[in-house]
């Protein structure tokens, strides 16, 4: 958009922001590059570090849609009956407003990207570059479910609203919905709104307790794929049709888009965070959201990035359509397929045991875990964070028969997943032993049912680690086969990147585990390869690399477990 047409759009957007009370105090919005699009850059110095202030009234939230005189009457009943959720409302709003000729949101919507780098926008050929990865299958499923949501719910509603409006650009099509969906996921924030802002008329009820002061980092992140907005006080409250439950006193978490703030790009070393100012004591604008400098001095024209959270490339590509080469937050997701349980021996008893210990059928293996393993890769960029530390609950002691394994503090795999695998891999005699241990416990406890950690302890006592580790080795080996069947080896990916003019900063992955440390650079795609292809190769190569490294850890642990009779 670096053209005079683009300049005119930006100019109209800046005026629109100003009319709507947005203050660019220490920053400007400008085009960054064809990869990132627009971004926010430092302008003049601000002594209090407040770079940008946006009134919360400008945010696109589910409440806003429900309260809107045009949208509200058409959506409220559907929302209250649970036919559509809060995200649907925002996607609907974006779809319709983009098609309305005289939308008051036009200057904002005209600034938004028209295509995206997430796999939903890949051609069929481009998608093949993801074959064998989790994202390949997820994209196929997501496309299908979006298609039915469009056909079954969205299209008719948009048609109705556009007819009511009587002045639309054209008829809606599936790509309009895809556009709105991608805009939502790439730009939505999980906003901690002041209670009094969301529920002005029920303010006095606000003391109905709040406990669980959840992850403060959510307030500085773009929305997490799993986060659900609109929640207050652990209790469902219906106000204006919005179901709300809170996790922090005086705060209502709501997903939404905040024009202006949503032009911040993601950086590994963010120069700013965003916060909400309920009273106006910081910004002099009550009920506003502001961008706050992280403290380090900003050079004029330096890009002001925020952190979208510690996201791996799978999540970055899926939600935001970009990847970071050498992403220190990259992870591998491993799961035990639930369907496979039906074909193992004693599947019913094992299913019961899995339920009794609230077993997790999947686990995330962040790259940082490798720092603590048998073969550390030495990339400790997450120092101070506990992300790489594992909480091994394996200090179980039952009858004291089973010795604590010597390798315990080097085992990088989450205990919650190992216990699942122990259960699935259990042999007949082990199952019998677990039953007797649990019966013994019930008898001695006067009929009390064993807790989930007691069930886990009994399973560990009976099974040890080798069955679970063998299963993990099998799962990781299968994962590697899928990845390589889909797109060749890690080395062939490295060569593809190298041949595209991307070699200098990359180490060939020929087995030197320390090579990871040299890649944390977030490099941009080279000119000679399409951005989508580059993203896919960087992502899948990272998955192969992590699979290889975690497989090596699992194989070594298995060997030790067998040697120690575990
Ligand atoms: C919240 S928007 C940021 C504003 C956006 N650049 C624009 O032009 O509207 C998020 C999108 O910006 C782009 N983006 C953000 N951070 C990036 C990064 N570090 N590298 C590449 N693209 C990035 C991605 O396209 C992402 O989906």
From TrEMBL:
GO terms for molecular function: protein-lysine N-methyltransferase activity. Residues 508-528 are annotated as: Disordered. Residues 25-309 form the SET domain. One of its GO terms (biological process) is methylation. CDD domains: SET_LSMT (cd10527). PROSITE patterns: SET (PS50280). Keywords: Methyltransferase, Transferase. Its EC number is 2.1.1.-. This is Putative methyltransferase chromatin remodeling SET family. The lineage of its organism: Eukaryota, Viridiplantae, Streptophyta, Embryophyta, Tracheophyta.
